[in-house]
Write a structure and sequence with these properties.
Length: 145
């Protein structure tokens, strides 16, 4: 069994984005279901790219495809909390980027959940890996830890 990662604090992240929980996020146990955290990761990362003008999900000729995700859970969150997604980079390669992402309760210093999220950049038409576009790289570089 793999060793449990150390619970990260806010200082391990370069950017924070608010993420409102939704009614449908809660499961029968009264907390956000584990699979929803992956949606929060995806939303935070891609919203950052869209907001910075380097991703148009419908038309960008180069897009990032998710090839790996992981998540470790430390404490529950539930609707109607608004949480914050912390984002930093673990690795910025030629055609891929691995994000460090965590979900924080409002005003909490330690992550409620944290994980990794890897994009491989591909040509939309061919589906083949390509170099990360210069404009996208410029948006990503400040997120390096």
């Amino acid at each position: 069994m793999a060793e449990r990662p150390e619970r990260l604090s806010r200082s391990a992240f370069r950017l924070f984005r608010p993420v409102p929980t939704r009614w449908m996020d809660n499961d029968v146990y009264g907390h956000v279901n584990n699979v929803v955290y992956y949606s929060y990761f995806d939303t935070a990362v891609n919203a950052h790219l869209v907001d910075n003008g380097v991703l148009d999900p419908a038309t960008s000729p180069v897009t990032g495809l998710v090839v790996e995700t992981s998540c470790t859970y430390f404490e529950s969150i539930s609707f109607p909390e608004t949480v914050e997604a912390g984002i930093a980079l673990d690795k910025l390669g030629r055609s891929s980027v691995t994000y460090r992402v965590a979900i924080f309760k409002e005003r909490a210093e330690l992550a409620a959940a944290q994980g990794r999220f890897t994009h491989v950049y591909v040509d939309r038409a061919s589906g083949r890996p390509v170099e990360i576009p210069a404009a996208t790289r410029a948006v990503l570089e400040p997120l390096q830890a």
